[in-house]
Amino acid sequence: MNVWSLINEGVALFNNKKIDEAIEKLNQALGEIEDKNSQIQEQNDIQFWLGRCYFEQAMKAEGKESEQLFGRIVEHFQQSLEFAKQLADKQNSLQEQINAQFWLGVCYFKQALTAKGKESEQLFGNAVEHFQQSLEFAKQLADKQNSLQEQIYAQYSLGRCYLEQAKKVKGKESEQLVEQAVEHHQQQLSLAEQLEDKQNSLQEQIDAQSWLGRCYFEQAKKAKGKESERLFGQAAEHFQRSLEFAKQLADKQNSLQEQNNAQHWLGNCYLEQAKKAKGKESEQLFGQAVEHCQQQLSLAAQLADKQNSLQEQIYAQHWLGHCYLEQVKKAQSKELEQLFGKAVEHHQQQLRLAEQLEDKQNSLQEQNNAQSWLGRCYFEQAKIQQKWERYFDWKKQKIQGDLFGTQEGTQKEKTVIDDITTILAVLNIPPMELGSIPLAHYTSPSVCERLFGIVSDQTNDKTPVDRSKVSPMRIGSSTYMNDPTEGEGLLELLNLQDLELENKADCPVHNAFFTCFSSRVNDLNQFRLYGKENGVEASGCCLVFNKSGDWLKEPDVSASFKSFTNKQNEGFKEPIEADVAGSEDENLPLYQVAYIAYYDEYIAKEKCGKWLLNKNNQSFGIRLKPVGKNPSWHQFRIKKLEEALIELIEKSNNISDEDRKALEYIRYLFKDFAFRDEEEFRLLKIEQIGSDKIEYCPTTKSVYLPYADIRDIVDEVILGTNYEKSGKERKAEVFQHLMRKYYPNVKVSRSSLPINANPPIKKD
């Protein structure tokens, strides 16, 4: 078989999404090249299509694997570019160089989207450079229409680069980047108008108008007052033009899809304006937003592809629910019930539609999203009316469904599962409950440096910040925690210390892993206890999360227990096979820790929220700090926690083996009263020992689970008072300089808490 036949087979396999087979066939073609000096076109095509194949693989990969694949992709497209330059036919050479430059740009663009700080900026710069080259070559093509089309692709890509960059920065820099994006999309529009094929011209103008609208929309969200109004007006104008062009498309289904998209963005424009406006003006804008979302829903229902139609209807129902929920925040009391009712109705419709999706994973994701928004509705309603039952029932039912399936006890006779679910519902803190409460994680300077890829110990490194040396934040094993009785407090309360379970044996099958946070930011006691280096108190770093209220993702409660539930007998809901992609668990739920105290003469009764009697008539207390500033919600939670614990105590003599296993879900959410000042929250995961997800650290001689790359998650790093006195010759000024240069969105400050440094421990 000759080289061209092998190349064509490889391309056909690629088009049929048989990527591994395509790579094999293309490499076979490469091996058949006899004369490397004359078979330039063949080598160009092979390298180009190998790049495309690996690109498809990279889009599905995560972490290090993705990085390695992108490195390989760039190599193939670079080689394709070099061969393209050698082609004798000038026009063909230009076309092939355009193709290679464009895909090199796409490679860097895709990497830039997920990269952080300075690295992201550099990757966007690389992408822009290649798209710019592609544009310059496109202008030299002899075929005018082809030249126009290639220029359109390049201008679109340049606009996208600048817009995505703008989203990652703030202030003047963001404004300037959006202006550059607008300029390129304007060029895209101008070129699209010159295309001779009317339908193609319309399609390209729709795309250009839509992206111009999105540029102004992005600016408008950040602007204030009259400037914001003006920018929203410009955005709406472009989306309206996009809508008018979409109506002229000959392909009915494509026309419906493009109209649907335009209506969505028009709805968004008016919704964002309504949120900023007041009084009657706000009411009118909400009305316009709803109207466009209704149009979106109507168009979505007409799409012939049933699954696509369902997906688009889901989006429309979501935004309709969102519109009504936002209205609630500005409405008069007499209108509240009606608006809440409409918001709930649309999110329930969203849920029902999500259940009909054939893609199981996507269906579950969309159901979870709909459930989360229903929860938001109930939570907002409860806050206004100070009635918490409906919200708490929703929360409890969702957790029960996620973990235990449809098992339910009666109101008269609650099961152990009911009690456990109640405790989980009390202690689980989703984003809407956490709000913008800042949480702190205390760690050592060495660990802090590794989290940001800062190299301080090796003098031969070319750069002080190296992305290849960035480590994800860790979820540590409960075995190494400072509390030697971790996980035993609840069992002691229930008089189940001798609990004979497989995972309580000398060699446990499962272990609990968690990473801890405290509501006490820049706290002397926390600095003294955690993160110190060389025994020097307050030499560590305080990492502050959630200052803007955007840290937590919508949680998957079952994510904490997937490994554990997978091993349970019938009675537990079978978990979804697919876990969070990659090694990171960014959607783990957050739990507040409750503290158990036993009454004695030295503990003031007021220090605990509740004092109860257990079955041995021993008085015990539960301390749970309020989350947020709503006392009625806190009292409601305390009451529910009290009821569930009392019922568990009463049932502890007759707990079945299956129910005893279920206690694993909550035993790590309680600590001894002695640790109350920590005011702890934790991300928890139970993992099977021996799992591929567990990693070993040779430095600490311990095991852990990777959590997440936190470089774009942390809001602030507070350096301890004695940061420079740990014996490592660290300088706060150097750390601040590197952070400001590479991670400008992370604030760096220094603690001035009054504490002297202990001298570093000298090692023999």
Tell me the helix content.
Answer: 55-70%
- Name the assembly state: single chain
Biggest pleated sheet:
6 strands, antiparallel
Low-confidence stretches: 407-412, 499-505, 566-584
Based on CA atoms alone, the radius of gyration comes out at: 29 Å
In terms of DSSP E residues, the strand content is 5-15%
Number of strands: 14
The tally of helices reads: 25
Would you write up a description of this structure?
The protein has 764 residues and is of the alpha+beta class. Among the domains are: 225-385, Tetratricopeptide repeat domain (Serine Threonine Protein Phosphatase 5, Tetratricopeptide repeat, Alpha Horseshoe); 416-750, no CATH class. The chain has 25 helices and 14 strands. Strands 5-10-3-2-12-11 form a 6-stranded antiparallel beta sheet.
Characteristic terms for this protein:
764 residues, four-stranded mixed beta sheet, 56% helix, alpha+beta, Serine Threonine Protein Phosphatase 5, Tetratricopeptide repeat, six-stranded antiparallel beta sheet, 14 strands
Which helices and strands appear, and what pairs or packs with what?
Blueprint: H1 3-15, H2 19-31, H3 40-60, H4 63-86, H5 90-114, H6 117-139, H7 144-168, H8 171-192, H9 198-222, H10 225-247, H11 252-276, H12 279-301, H13 306-328, H14 333-354, H15 360-385, H16 389-404, H17 416-427, H18 431-434, E1 439-443, H19 445-452, E2 474-477, H20 489-493, E3 510-518, H21 524-529, E4 541-545, H22 562-565, E5 590-592, E6 594-598, E7 610-613, E8 619-623, H23 631-651, H24 657-662, E9 670-672, E10 680-688, E11 695-697, E12 702-706, E13 716-719, H25 732-742, E14 747-750
Parallel strand pairs: 6-9, 13-14
Antiparallel strand pairs: 1-4, 2-3, 2-12, 3-10, 4-13, 5-10, 6-8, 7-8, 11-12
Helix pairs in contact: 1-2, 1-3, 2-3, 3-4, 3-5, 4-5, 5-6, 5-7, 6-7, 7-8, 7-9, 8-9, 9-10, 9-11, 10-11, 11-12, 11-13, 12-13, 13-14, 13-15, 14-15, 15-16, 16-17, 17-23
